[in-house]
Amino acid sequence: MKVAIIHDWLTTSRGGEKCLEVFCELFPDADIYTLLHIPGACSGKIEKMKIHTSFIQRFPFLAEKYRSYLPFFPFAIERFNLKGYDLVISSSHCVAKGIIPPPDALHICYIYTPMRYIWDMFDDYFGEEKTGTTARNLISSISSFLRVWDVSSSSRVDRFIAISNHVRKRVEKYYRREAEILYPPADTRFFEPGGEKGDYFLVVSSLVPYKRVELAVEACNRLQRPLLVIGAGPEGKRLRSLARFSGIKFLGHQGDEALKRYYQSCRALIFPGEEDFGIVPVEAMACGRPVIAYGRGGALETVISPGSGRPITGIHFMEQDTESLIKAIGEFEKMEKEFNPAAIRGHAQSFDRDQFKQKLDGLIRKFLGQWQEGKRADVSEAKSGI
Known about the structure:
Layout: E1 3-7, H1 15-26, E2 31-34, H2 44-47, E3 50-53, H3 62-65, H4 73-78, E4 87-92, E5 106-111, H5 122-126, H6 128-131, H7 133-153, E6 159-162, H8 165-175, E7 179-181, E8 201-204, H9 213-223, E9 227-230, H10 236-242, E10 248-252, H11 256-265, E11 268-271, H12 279-286, E12 291-294, H13 299-302, E13 314-317, H14 322-334, H15 341-348, H16 353-385
Parallel strand pairs: 1-2, 1-4, 2-3, 4-5, 5-6, 6-7, 8-9, 8-11, 9-10, 11-12, 12-13
Helix pairs in contact: 9-14, 12-15
């Protein structure tokens, strides 16, 4: 088969790119189509593939400002010519699933989320306090067009695979489509227990509004608990100004080796945002450390709280505010000795990369078999009509 892999953009190496690596391993001769590519930004497995970019690649200030070109993305993704491909796999959190596939090709979409900034998180990104009234009204008009396009282009997908049950429900809500569930992979071979436990709580996150890192900062301010924050982003300056307790430190971006050491030594990871899946809690659990997570989104599927009848791996707080998080930290401290690092790691290994690869391969083979059987049935029906 001739295979095309569609990925929104190649500007970093995060969770979506870890999944893309597996697609590249399954189909090493495939072509990658993407809106833009910053050379060297991804792993060698991706960089060695044949990569095709859109006209967005020629826009100025690409590395820093590419998200500002969002209104152009639907037009750019539709400009790609996929004639001659038998299988199209889109890896989509923005517009990749809107590619126009050849009529005789099977299009499978591995979807991280419907575009969150035009659907349920519009106010988190574009609230008046963040953008102002005039800018919000302009963005709202653009988002109306994008929502219409997002729904209509979903019909170009033959099969959806969602990264979590949370995303599956959103695919059903916005697109009226069914989806299989396949959790993204975590590198549980690399992230493993080790070292001595420290006295600090840990946040690992991009410093952007919807991650709600300020909840962890405010909670540790009031409790006078040491907190290390790993990550960078536009919220960094504001969050630093909120840190009144001297034990709250902002460490910026950290490499994988340093990140692993911080995971291994923390008392617990604090995960205050609502994520579609959330690979960070799984990495922390792979290192044997418990998680204090907001009880919505993917964290309900990855973090096992008390009362489930299964070995506990963390605690959920059910209101996304400082008081609820403070209460959860208190509950954690009362039962801290009950957390078993080996059991926590054992749970994280259910998200192992090898299992993801095997399950993904099985789903693609199943969908191809169903697709080919359907085409044979169409041919048989046409002959009968003749």
